[in-house]
């Protein structure tokens, strides 16, 4: 079932259309094994690059998820329909996160880490040195301007000079800092907690003050174990869902 090279647009979009149809008509379901990249290459007569681009499109549409060690799976209907679904289990998935949303971070000068964050990162947080501070809002995208998250971001002082070079419409700042700052990501620590919306967060999210929110604190460490980016994201409780798959060993 080769895909035409000159008709119907780029091959990866044609392949994405065929796989999307298979998901919609029930040929591919969460309960059935999803074809491997090699199987798709053979069946449709395309390159592995074409397959990966097609799968990326479906992943952005939340029709599938791709997990290391588990392969590709079709997401259940409630995940496909969720506008703010997150399933972040790897750096690759974090890089894909919110590609179809819009974010706008604004540099706000320098700031000492708040005590609550400093305590989370241990000895590296016990310093008076100021970090570059950015603040912004993520909106739903797709023609919607409704805010779905308020964001506070801190960048280590020795990397602050890179801020003017960053694409501040992307939430994947850590990838940009990795490339521009000549550093390597060691690990990411994530803390999720429920908090009441403060006055600034309530204003940014257009919700009543003290409305329950989910706070996600992500601490990005370099290969030497030093935090280089800290991102605090606040989601209104009703606009957030989180899912992960745990496979048996």
TrEMBL record:
It holds the Pfam family GntR. The keyword Flavoprotein does not apply. Residues 9-77 form the HTH gntR-type domain. Keywords: DNA-binding, Transcription, Transcription regulation. The keyword Transcription applies. PROSITE patterns: HTH_GNTR. GO terms for molecular function: DNA binding; DNA-binding transcription factor activity. One of its GO terms (biological process) is negative regulation of DNA-templated transcription. PANTHER family: MANNOSYL-D-GLYCERATE TRANSPORT/METABOLISM SYSTEM REPRESSOR MNGR-RELATED, MANNOSYL-D-GLYCERATE TRANSPORT_METABOLISM SYSTEM REPRESSOR MNGR-RELATED. This is GntR family transcriptional regulator. It comes from Novosphingobium aureum.
């Amino acid at each position: 079932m080769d895909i035409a090279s000159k008709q119907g647009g780029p091959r990866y979009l044609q392949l994405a259309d065929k796989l999307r149809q298979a998901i919609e008509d029930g040929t591919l379901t969460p309960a059935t094994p999803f074809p491997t990249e090699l199987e798709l290459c053979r069946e449709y007569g395309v390159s592995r690059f074409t397959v990966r681009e097609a799968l990326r499109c479906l992943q952005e549409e939340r029709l599938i998820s791709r997990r290391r060690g588990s392969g590709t799976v079709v997401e259940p209907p409630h995940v496909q329909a969720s506008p703010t679904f997150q399933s972040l289990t790897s750096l690759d998935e974090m890089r894909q996160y919110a590609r179809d949303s819009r974010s706008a971070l604004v540099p706000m000068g320098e700031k000492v880490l708040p005590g609550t964050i400093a305590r989370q990162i241990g000895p590296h947080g016990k310093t008076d040195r100021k970090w570059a501070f950015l603040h912004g809002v993520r909106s739903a995208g797709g023609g919607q301007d409704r805010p779905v998250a308020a964001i506070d971001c801190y960048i280590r002082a020795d990397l602050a000079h890179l801020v003017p070079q960053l694409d501040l419409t992307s939430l994947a700042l850590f990838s940009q800092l990795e490339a521009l700052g000549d550093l390597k990501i060691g690990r990411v620590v994530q803390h999720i907690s429920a908090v009441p919306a403060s006055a600034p967060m309530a204003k940014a999210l257009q919700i009543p003050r003290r409305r329950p929110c989910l706070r996600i604190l992500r601490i990005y460490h370099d290969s030497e174990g030093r935090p280089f980016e800290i991102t605090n994201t606040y989601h209104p409780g009703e606009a957030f869902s989180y899912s992960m798959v745990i496979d048996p060993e």
